[in-house]
Design goal:
Helix content is about 45%, strand content about 10%. It contains nine helices and five strands, in the order H-H-H-E-E-H-H-E-E-H-E-H-H-H. A five-stranded mixed sheet has the order 2-1-5-3-4, sandwiched between helices.
């Protein structure tokens, strides 16, 4: 196979470019081991729609965070979860999972409110493929080609020793994750603590409260803006 690919590798032709891409795939397979699942629909379409020769990481997928934003991360057919998270952490300014306690989760293909923690040695493409296959089995006869796995990066285990070196991004994501747990009744708090946390999260979301000041008649003051902000927080 290596000799065949080497013979046909040619950056001047489309056929030769695909041969070079296949050479990369063989090298990565030797490095990380065989795949466990066949290529997914997403993987096949990505390969067909854009020549993978031009991309060192030919596939990409969004990773969602607890504050409602997401980060698109590139990967290849042999990228493991560990390698995937190394790229994600470099892009977002976060520490390694062993230091931060964060982990990558996937949703459940059945649609149930269940998340699965993904181990570092599993390949991202295998996760996507197995998720697609399970989704088809869970929903037979339905055309759900647009559905794909949803990946979420959030804290799994938190220890006091992890506070040392904690980044601002990690702190922010922990705030939103704790807030969601409180809203869902998974994090018990009393009334006073709930009010304090609400005020702090409102400050993060909206900014500092602007106190009203007097101005000449007819001019718009910040009081109306402050009142509107306060009303929004209370709602």
């Amino acid at each position: 196979l290596k000799l065949h690919l080497k013979k046909n590798a040619d950056a001047r032709t489309e056929f030769g470019k695909y041969a070079i891409y296949c050479q990369r795939c063989v090298e990565r397979t030797q490095q990380n081991g065989d795949r466990e699942a066949r290529p997914s629909r997403m993987e096949i379409l990505s390969t067909l729609l854009r020549n993978p020769y031009h991309h060192s990481l030919p596939f990409s997928i969004p990773v969602h965070f607890m504050n409602g934003i997401y980060q698109v991360v590139g990967f290849d057919a042999s990228t493991t979860v560990e390698e995937f998270l190394n790229t994600l952490n470099q892009d977002t300014g976060m520490r390694k999972p062993a230091q931060s306690g964060f982990a990558l989760f996937s949703d459940d293909p059945s649609g149930k409110d269940i998340e699965h923690c993904l181990q570092g040695n599993i390949k991202i493409c295998d996760i996507i493929s197995k998720w697609e296959q399970a989704s088809k089995e869970q929903h037979p006869g339905k055309c759900e080609g647009t559905r794909t796995v949803r990946l979420t990066y959030k804290n799994r285990l938190y220890f006091s020793v992890q506070v040392h070196g904690e980044t601002d991004r990690e702190k922010l994501l922990l705030v939103y994750q704790t807030n969601e747990q409180i809203v869902n009744g998974l994090f018990p708090v009393n009334k006073e603590l709930a009010m304090e946390l609400t005020a702090l999260l409102a400050q993060v979301e909206i900014g500092d409260f602007e106190r009203p000041f007097s101005t000449p008649a007819g001019q718009v003051t910040s009081q109306s803006k402050s009142n509107q902000t306060l009303k929004q927080v209370l709602e």
